[in-house]
Design brief:
This protein is α/β, with parallel strands linked by helices. The chain is built from 15 helices and eleven strands. The structure holds glutamine.
């Protein structure tokens, strides 16, 4: 009830929730009360969560924050949300995001932008980051105890950093993608956002696990993530990649990074300088691979099988009218870029080349992890920016992903943990990147920073 009251009071301003399922949540909470009275219960019994509106939820509208899916009610439950329900979680509703998870500010949503619960001295409304901006704003404002997010190129980590909470993108394949609306299938990965590293650990343990319905899901046991949060860090080697210190990095970000290094030294870590030489190609290759896969994935929204339909005299016209009305500007831009880099004549020059560079980015990480156990970097190059800023300059927006994209390209786990506030009092986050499948190591280091 406290959470539902909070949503009632604040959602008009924050616009974090697209759909609230109050009756369903109250019924589930009553059931949880009953279960708790009976003794032994699953780990998330009665815990109120927000679900990014990219996860299909059976019988509950799922929009991907797009007009094209504005009336879509899935007949099935995504594996990740089914796993959370199995552990007793209570869903409060579906939260806002950038349309089809394409963006870094939550301003591309067809349901309007999310406003961060944080404000800065000059009174400007701030973005919560994106694409999981509704998840981050809901958790930061106390409108959910935790939330699901998805991260294709930073969409869990950057909003977590912007709103002063924690968020982890696990290793690609750790959480099933089944029933999660696809953006870029070789990069998309689900994960939790929550107010502490330990909460993230508990949520991730519930979300993760092998799923035969997703061919890229990993058949590996899910470790006890919660106990990893209290592990000793004595002798753990932390790499500081020199390429994450670009020319003109703000002194506040630099200072936060130095504090993080000092805290980890105190905790018994050994700090090692490392190099990830292909980092500089991360953004350029990401913004070829992700749109290419998006253009392929979004081809299904043709107005015929599901979602909105705008009629036309011919089949081609029906497609054109439906997509023109149903997709926002950023989604159209991605589909155009993706179609271009995949077209004959350009495929070798762009897409194939990007895939080769991606292999080099992964090799950088593999080589670094021969010397160190985890990497420490800032999550984003700045604190949250003002609503509307960067909207007329997509490249400026893409540059915000500079520190988060490489771990996505390599498929390795990475977490953002709140680490400092800037001169305006806004939160800043540090990013911990780990070896493939070593979410435990990432959580342990993050818990020490927190
Ligand atoms: N900001 C990045 C993009 O727009 C990442 C989004 C994401 O991780 N879903 O593609």
């Amino acid at each position: 009830d406290a959470h539902l009251d909070g949503i009632e009071a604040l959602n008009g301003r924050l616009n974090a929730y697209i759909t609230v399922v109050a009756d369903q949540a109250r019924a589930a909470a009553r059931q949880a009360d009953g279960a708790l009275a009976g003794g032994d219960v699953p780990v998330l019994t009665g815990i109120p969560l927000a679900i990014k509106d990219l996860f299909c939820t059976q019988g509950v509208r799922t929009t991907a924050a797009s007009r094209i899916l504005g009336n879509f009610i899935p007949p099935y439950e995504s594996t990740v949300t089914a796993n959370l329900l199995r552990e007793g979680a209570v869903f409060l509703g579906k939260v806002n995001l950038d349309e089809f998870a394409m963006g870094s500010s939550n301003a591309t949503s067809a349901f309007g932008p999310v406003v961060s619960p944080w404000t800065r001295g000059d009174g400007a409304s701030l973005v919560p980051g994106g694409s999981s901006g509704g998840s981050a704003a809901a958790v930061a404002a106390g409108l959910a105890m935790g939330a699901t997010g998805t991260d294709t190129g930073g969409s869990i980590r950057q909003p977590a950093a912007f709103t002063g909470i924690a968020g982890i993108k696990p290793t690609y394949g750790r959480c099933s993608r089944w029933g999660t609306i696809a953006f870029a299938s070789s990069l998309d990965q689900a994960g939790p956002l929550a107010r502490s590293v330990e909460d993230c650990a508990i949520l991730l343990g519930a979300m993760a696990g092998y799923d035969p319905k997703d061919s890229t899901s990993a058949d590996r046991a899910v470790p006890d993530y919660r106990s990893a949060c209290t592990r000793s860090l004595r002798g753990v080697r932390i790499g500081i990649p020199k390429e994450y210190r670009p020319e003109g990095l703000s002194p506040e970000i630099e200072a936060m990074w130095e504090s993080g290094i000092a805290w980890l030294r105190e905790a018994g870590c050994e700090i090692v300088d490392v190099s990830l030489p292909h980092t500089k190609y991360g953004l350029a290759t990401y913004y070829i691979v992700a749109p290419a896969e998006a253009s392929s994935n979004l081809a299904r929204y043709d107005g015929v099988r599901f979602g909105e339909r705008v009629a036309g005299a011919t089949l081609d016209e029906l497609y054109e009218n439906t997509r023109a009305a149903g997709f926002g500007a950023e989604v159209q831009r991605r589909v155009l870029i993706g179609t271009y880099v995949l077209s004959s004549g350009y495929y070798d020059a762009y897409y194939l080349r990007a895939q080769k560079v991606r292999a080099l980015i992964l090799r950088d990480f593999t080589e670094a992890f021969e010397k160190v156990d985890a990497l420490l970097t800032p999550t984003a190059p700045s604190a949250a920016f003002a609503l509307g800023e960067k909207m007329d300059d997509p490249v400026q927006m893409y540059l915000n992903d500079i520190f988060t994209v490489p771990a996505s390209m390599a498929g390795v786990p990475a977490m953002s943990v709140p680490a400092a506030v800037d001169a305006k009092g806004l939160p800043l986050g540090l990013q911990v990147i780990g070896r493939p499948w070593d979410e435990e190591g990432v959580l342990a280091v993050s818990a020490a920073i927190e």
